[in-house]
Specification:
This protein is α/β, with parallel strands linked by helices.
Length: 346
């Protein structure tokens, strides 16, 4: 009666079945620990670009100043972003290509983490990035450039502000439904992004996200993740960029968008979505919760039956058939119940 076959077989099998259910839906769980941790999360924190939004940036507006034309400002930005693979840089280069502009010759490019690019051209020094980059170099920016609605790229040449480029990103069509599905499990949601406060608030409001934190550098994301964990409990982070890798590794459970996600993010994550569908976040939560529920069902059922049969056996009431049922019968039932986890993704 006390033989632990039912537990030894059914519990690992339930985890294997849960992992299999996820793989059929394009959700890669990196082991049973990922399944178990996901079922215990209390808050879901997401990156914006590529997770909540499509990540397909487009140049929406070019505003020039200081006597420069729009094309000249765009050409300067193209020179600064010519060696970058960031989605914002890609959108700028696409606009440069569409307008068939020639970009200035670049002598040297220095990337300043979380701020932008410092570029040495043949005829001067170019700065291309956010407000912090220009402020760090003592460059005054007009008030109108500080009230930009979208992702802003500001430029300065030879110590003078010359204009800015507004780049907007479109929210995914199913992001709102994905957030609603997540909230059905009673989870609190938040968004961390390096974008401007207004743009972040607009995206969060449209998607139905509870809170947003804008202008976040990688270290800011880590700090806010720790604060959210202290307030809400176990935290899941969803992201896809190389800057998200530290947060993915520090979260209780990390999910990476695998289709367009960076290798660093995929490596750091505990779960990988094989495409960029945010609806699969709630599916992963559903699979984990059902799998863990089946595991506990098997544990309670197996131990409960064995305790009852042990007591009956000690009192001389249970016969050999009861003992066989407590061993083999319970094992078969527990294994069949564990296999139910294969259908958890439906």
């Amino acid at each position: 009666i006390s033989c632990p076959c039912a537990l030894v077989l059914s519990v690992p099998l339930a985890f294997f079945a849960g992992i299999g259910a996820g793989s059929k839906k394009g959700i890669l769980f990196k082991g049973g620990v990922s399944l178990e941790s996901l079922a215990a999360v209390k808050a879901v924190v997401m990156d914006k670009t590529g997770t909540v939004t499509e990540g397909n940036f487009k140049v929406a507006q070019i505003v020039s100043d200081g006597g420069y034309t729009e094309d000249r400002v765009l050409a300067f930005a193209g020179a600064a972003e010519s060696r970058s693979t960031h989605p914002i840089a890609t959108s700028i280069m696409e606009e440069v290509k569409n307008r068939r502009l020639d970009i200035p010759q670049v002598a040297d490019i220095k990337e300043i983490s979380g701020k932008g690019m410092e570029v040495t051209l043949e005829d001067g020094k170019l700065l291309c990035g956010n407000l912090e980059l220009l402020a760090m170099n003592g460059i005054e920016v007009p008030e109108k450039a500080k009230e930009i609605y979208g992702t802003e790229v500001l430029l300065a040449f030879d110590g003078k502000y010359i204009g800015y480029i507004v780049i907007n990103d479109k929210i995914k069509s199913d992001s709102k439904q994905a957030i609603n599905d997540i909230k059905r499990y009673g989870l609190w949601t938040a968004m961390l992004t390096g974008d401007s406060q207004k743009n972040a608030e607009m995206v969060a409001k449209e998607a139905g996200i509870d809170a947003c934190y804008a202008k976040q550098l990688p270290q800011d994301k880590l700090n806010n993740l720790s604060k959210i964990r202290e307030e809400k409990g176990a935290v899941m982070f969803v992201g896809d960029g190389i800057n998200d890798a530290p947060v993915l590794s520090r979260a209780d459970i990390g999910i990476a968008m695998g289709a367009l996600g960076s290798d660093a993010a995929i490596e750091a994550a505990d779960i990988v979505l094989m495409d960029d569908d945010p609806l699969k976040i709630s599916k992963a939560i559903h699979i984990s919760k059902k799998c863990i529920r089946i595991v506990y069902e098997n544990i309670y059922f197996a131990i409960g039956i064995k305790i009852i049969c042990l007591v009956l056996g000690a009192l001389g009431i249970a016969n050999m058939w009861a003992a066989i049922f407590a061993d083999v019968g319970v094992m078969v039932i527990a294994v069949l119940n564990a296999i139910r986890a294969l259908n958890a993704g439906k």
